[in-house]
Amino acid sequence: MPEGPGDGGVPHQHTRTVVRGDVELHVVEVGEGFPVVLAHGFPDLAYTWRHQMPVLAQAGYRAVALDQRGYGRSSRPEAVEAYDIAHLIDDLVCLLGGASSTGWTRSRCCPRG
Hints:
Number of strands: 4
Strand content: 15-25%
Number of helices: 3
Distance between the termini: 43 Å
Helix content: 10-25%
Structural class: alpha+beta
CATH superfamily: Alpha/Beta hydrolase fold, catalytic domain
Order of helices and strands: EEEHEHH
C-alpha cells in the first residue's frame, strides 16, 4: 500500500462502493493482509473506526469498515425488513467477496429454515 511523505508510514485509506442488488455500500479500506471487518452500530459510521484502522494496517491486516445500510454514504432501503440480521450478514459476506477465507457464509452462520 503506498505511503505518503511525512505520514509516519501510515498506509493511505481507499474507498470503494460495493453493490449488492439495489443497495450500495460505502467501504473504507486500509492495509493489506487478512481482512478485519469493522462493523459499526447505531448511530455510527465507518468513520468511527478511523483510529483503529491504521493500527490494524500497521500490524499487517487489511482493515475494512463500511457504512452499514441506512447510514452515511450507503443506500437507505425503505422496507424495515431490509435491515434484518440476514440482510446485514449478507452485506458483510458480499463485502468479503462472497465467502470469507475461513469458509463462513451467510447460510452457515444464519441459516434460513
